[in-house]
TrEMBL record:
<keyword id="KW-0808">Transferase</keyword>
<dbReference type="InterPro" id="IPR008279">
    <property type="entry name" value="PEP-util_enz_mobile_dom"/>
</dbReference>
<dbReference type="InterPro" id="IPR015813">
    <property type="entry name" value="Pyrv/PenolPyrv_kinase-like_dom"/>
</dbReference>
<feature type="domain" description="Pyruvate phosphate dikinase AMP/ATP-binding">
    <location>
        <begin position="292"/>
        <end position="347"/>
    </location>
</feature>
<keyword id="KW-0418">Kinase</keyword>
<dbReference type="InterPro" id="IPR018274">
    <property type="entry name" value="PEP_util_AS"/>
</dbReference>
<dbReference type="Pfam" id="PF02896">
    <property type="entry name" value="PEP-utilizers_C"/>
</dbReference>
<keyword id="KW-0460">Magnesium</keyword>
<keyword id="KW-0479">Metal-binding</keyword>
<feature type="domain" description="PEP-utilising enzyme C-terminal">
    <location>
        <begin position="543"/>
        <end position="892"/>
    </location>
</feature>
<dbReference type="InterPro" id="IPR013815">
    <property type="entry name" value="ATP_grasp_subdomain_1"/>
</dbReference>
<keyword id="KW-0670">Pyruvate</keyword>
<dbReference type="InterPro" id="IPR010121">
    <property type="entry name" value="Pyruvate_phosphate_dikinase"/>
</dbReference>
<dbReference type="InterPro" id="IPR040442">
    <property type="entry name" value="Pyrv_kinase-like_dom_sf"/>
</dbReference>
<dbReference type="InterPro" id="IPR002192">
    <property type="entry name" value="PPDK_AMP/ATP-bd"/>
</dbReference>
<dbReference type="InterPro" id="IPR036637">
    <property type="entry name" value="Phosphohistidine_dom_sf"/>
</dbReference>
<dbReference type="InterPro" id="IPR000121">
    <property type="entry name" value="PEP_util_C"/>
</dbReference>
């Protein structure tokens, strides 16, 4: 029989697949003997069953009944008992935390009778407040009633009595509200609010399952690349109350500061509040230091538990707790989300404290986090006009137009603007706006509010709790209280997610210290700042990146085709150039020469054009080889379709047509050009005369390019330099193609070698960009000195679609259908294109076990893809210079981590 329900005493933290993150951690805390209110977890498998069958499995009912009985025994109370009710909460908890995505229902077990029992035990006001909260939450999340109906009823009552907030409401008010809420419930659903506690619980569980597929849950999963088919677990737990007056409260805390990474406990506390109040950011919170003042015993116990949890998890823990009349309860813990800077700094601290090794430190940070640290920051010296201040919730510097809702955000971003989403507070419905915006600013809420948690997770700059702001969405204004400053939607502001400052207008931004470190080294970066936290961050990045460099087996090269790019790549730590594209070298003034080659009627004319190109091309290579002296430079022979060097067919036809219509004379050259353009026109250029095919059709082109490479090399060698070019042939599909080009190249190399008296033993290899090349890699390898997988083209040719056409036509639908989890152009499609690469590696090495292989498509800089390439035994990845540091880190992580990128929920992308 399948076990669908696990008591908290039965699981542990490693069962996240089955129990979800929250359930696994509740079980772990229970195992550690911490004060966790008893409860049980309904597994993710149950959710998957429900989503597949649209009904829960048959055995679930019995298993839940038994689990409730266990809890009742421990608590000595019965669920919904009219005299002394046991109340329970129902919460979602997927494997990956999805803040604000899924729903919670509190106070299950209250009804018209048990509310009276609870009034006797606690106090009457609290009992009725709990009951109205149940009807409201249950109505909204389980029955899908518009939440505004309840909120409006609540406000109407408060306004009528002239109250300033919830706390002014009397017991009588709350009783009245329960009546009103029940009426709303009946009117909207046609049924009475369910009085049977077990029915309440069953309905809430199913509502959690259903919430897995809400739009915002899907948007979040898509963004975070969380597979759609994991499902969520449901946690059913004994309620404890932070809203039982003074001496009760609820809070969220972190064992280190998740924003800066500073050591020392950190948190928010709200007295006399329940569950979600802190996270929702409705009221401004107190600090943990305030809690120490209010309730030293609970504070000390909490701090001891925080220490215990951090030592146990060996990482920053994020904790939710409640104090019910002086008794501390732990409601949740997990390894906490943190900003990129905090991730690096905390990893270093944990190494220094002996909790983790340097290798573990490498696995605790990610390439994406490193990327975000490379972004510029506000120039400290720039003139700034501070409008107001809030709490620094997620670092970075964002400049943009004020937008006040999702629609404005999307519209202005689509029009090319950079925007700051300004809200009173955010809730899960604001996710789209947050995704579109460069920064998020809220008037309310603490560092653990929804806005803060989500923004940190996305690496989005965010300032929260700027309580001087009065945000009026309908009027389209943001004013600063106590002043006559009024800003409008569309006005430019700048927000600093590191200090919490909000500036008027656009503030100048300056380079990031981590970027200084990457390009100029540790000493320069340390000297460039006297800020201790910044220096600590730079040291942390240095420690981790150095370790990653030492651990990795993959080399990292860059795609660069100018001396400047080559220089930058080298500064960033590139160990060579993996792809030097040569086509741009034939544009501009030189396009005419190629045109001449195409139009030439005689071999002499053609050769004359090649001869004119030779010194220019040689000059290109001299610059690049010098910049990369001592390191390999893979030069790819010309690749694009011929027509890219000719005028556009339509434009030229129109131009000549207009000329003819005006009676002007069309020259023979013009006529010949038009003929050539027509002759070279292709229906599918991507699959046409390009790559090696072009070279074989125009052998003079290959000879000229190889000669330019050879002469540049010989000259530099004579000058005492150490140039290391490698010649690469694009779009190879057969071994015979490779054999011909190779023979041609060797002839030229021999000739130049003799002319210069310099040995020229350059490797000649090929790209694998066609499925046929991967399939026949064993025979191609016999003719080749190295392979470089061109995964851009290989993705196009394996799927049979052209990137330029498909990305804007049907990709969005494919994301929605779940065909792609992420674009296959962004992250390697492991099971399809990845399998083709793997086949190429395996077959190529069958012929030459030591054959050097790399990848030079965009995927070479993508973290998940890098893990895959490491796993299948490539020798190097090549990516754009800016991504080199990230690739170095990820290659190190790949070598250290033993998690395979292929598994669901690993770093893999998820293409069905
Ligand atoms: C590739 O196809 O992956 C590649 C690197 O070549 P290009 O992007 O220039 O077609
Ligand atoms: Mg290509």
């Amino acid at each position: 029989m399948t076990k669908y329900v696990y008591n908290f005493t039965e699981g542990d933290k490693d069962q996240k697949d089955l129990l979800g993150g929250k359930g696994a951690n509740l079980a772990e805390m229970t195992k550690l003997g911490l004060p966790v209110p008893p409860g049980f977890t309904i597994t993710t498998e149950t959710c998957r069953y429900y989503l597949g069958h649209n009904s829960v499995p048959e055995q679930l009912d019995d298993q839940v009944t038994r689990a409730i009985a266990d809890v009742e025994n421990v608590m000595g109370k019965k669920l919904g008992d009219p005299r002394d009710p046991l109340l329970m909460s129902v919460r979602s908890g997927a494997k990956f935390s999805m803040p604000g995505m899924m729903e919670t229902v509190l106070n299950i077990g209250l009804n018209d009778e048990s509310v009276l029992g609870l009034s006797q035990i606690g106090n009457e006001r609290f009992a009725w407040d709990s009951y109205r909260r149940l009807i409201q939450m249950f109505g909204k999340t389980v029955m899908d009633i518009d939440g505004d109906l309840f909120a409006t009823a609540l406000h109407t009552l408060q306004e009528r009595n002239g109250y300033s907030g919830d706390l002014d409401m009397t017991t009588e008010d709350l009783k009245e509200l329960v009546g009103t809420f029940k009426d709303i419930f009946k009117k909207e659903t046609g049924i009475d609010f369910p009085q049977d506690p077990r029915e309440q619980l069953n309905l809430a569980v199913v509502a959690v399952f259903n919430s897995w597929n809400t739009d915002r849950a899907r948007i979040y999963r898509r963004r975070e690349h969380i597979p759609n088919d994991l499902g969520t677990a449901v946690n059913v737990q004994t309620m404890v109350f932070g809203n039982m007056g003074q001496g009760s409260g609820t809070g969220v805390c972190f064992t280190r500061d998740p924003s800066t990474g500073d050591a020392g406990v950190y948190g928010d506390y709200l007295e006399n509040a329940q569950g979600e109040d802190v996270v929702a950011g409705i009221r401004n919170t107190l600090s943990l230091a305030d809690l120490q003042r209010l309730d030293e015993t609970s504070y000390n116990e909490l701090v001891a538990i925080m220490k215990k949890l951090e030592n146990h998890y060996r990482d920053l823990c994020d904790i939710e707790f409640t104090i019910q009349q002086g008794k501390l309860w732990m409601l949740q813990t997990r390894v906490g989300k943190r900003t990129a800077a905090a991730a690096f700094r905390i990893a270093k601290q944990l190494v220094e404290e002996g909790l983790i090794t340097q290798d573990e430190a490498v696995t605790r940070v990610s390439g994406d986090q490193l990327t975000s640290l490379l972004f510029p920051q506000f120039d400290k010296k720039a003139a700034k006009n501070v409008l107001t201040r809030g709490m620094a919730a997620s670092p970075g510097a964002a400049v943009g137009e004020i937008v006040l809702n999702n629609e404005q955000a999307k519209e202005r971003v689509a029009a090319g603007a950079s925007v700051i989403l300004v809200r009173r507070e955010t809730n899960p419905d604001d996710l789209e706006g947050m995704v579109a915006a460069s920064g998020v600013l809220t008037a309310r809420g603490g560092k653990t509010s929804h806005a803060a948690v989500v923004a940190r997770g996305m690496g989005r700059c965010c300032v929260v709790g700027a309580d001087e702001l009065l945000v009026e969405e309908v009027a389209g204004t943001v004013s600063i209280k106590g002043t006559n400053r009024v800003l409008k939607a569309g006005d430019i502001i700048s927000i600093d997610g590191t200090t919490g400052e909000v500036f008027e207008g656009a503030v100048a931004v300056s380079n990031s210290p981590v970027m200084t470190y990457i390009s100029e080294g540790l000493q320069s970066a340390l000297q460039a700042t006297d800020d201790a936290d910044t220096q600590d961050l730079v040291r942390a990045v240095d420690m981790i990146l150095t370790r990653a460099d030492n651990a990795r087996k993959l080399l990292v090269r860059a795609n660069a085709d100018t001396p400047e790019d080559a220089q930058r790549a080298r500064e960033f730590g590139a160990q060579g150039i993996g792809l030097c594209r040569t086509e741009h070298m034939f544009l501009g003034d030189r396009r005419k020469l190629i045109e001449t080659v195409i139009l030439a009627k005689t071999e002499e004319a053609k050769q004359a054009a090649f001869d004119a190109l030779l010194p220019l091309q040689k000059g290109d290579f001299l610059g690049i080889f010098e910049a990369m002296d001592g390191l390999p430079v893979t030069v790819r022979l010309i690749d694009p379709p011929l027509h890219e060097f000719l005028p556009d067919l339509t434009e030229l036809s129109v131009e000549l047509g207009v000329k003819a219509a005006k009676g002007e004379k069309i020259s023979d050259d013009e006529r010949a050009l038009l003929e050539a353009v027509k002759a070279n026109h292709e229906q599918n250029p991507m699959l046409g005369l390009r790559g090696v095919r072009l070279g074989l059709k125009m052998p003079g082109l290959i000879a000229m390019q190889v000669r330019a490479i050879a002469e540049a090399t010989a000259e530099l060698k004579k000058a005492g330099k150490d140039p290391r070019p490698e010649i690469m042939v694009p779009l190879i599909g057969s071994s015979r193609e490779m054999q011909i080009v190779r023979d041609m190249a060797i002839d030229v190399l021999h000739a130049v070698s003799q002319e210069y008296g310099v040995e020229l033993d350059l490797p000649i290899g090929n790209m694998i960009e066609l499925p046929r090349a991967a399939m026949s890699a064993d025979t191609i390898a016999a003719e080749s000195d190295f392979f470089s997988f061109g995964t851009n083209d290989l993705t196009q040719t394996t799927w049979g679609f052209s990137r330029d056409d498909v990305e804007s036509t049907f990709f969005n639908e494919y994301f929605d259908y779940g065909v792609f989890g992420i674009s296959p152009f962004e992250s390697i499609d492991i099971h399809g294109v990845g399998a083709v690469v793997e086949m190429g590696v395996e077959r190529g090495r069958r012929t030459k076990p030591e054959l050097k292989m790399g990848v030079c498509g965009e995927h070479g800089g993508d973290p998940a893809s890098i893990h895959f390439f490491a796993e299948i035994g490539l020798n190097y990845v090549s990516c754009s210079p800016f991504r080199v540091p990230v690739a170095r880190l990820e290659a190190g992580r790949a070598a250290i981590s033993n998690e395979s990128p292929r598994g669901v929920g690993g770093v893999a992308n998820h293409t069905a």
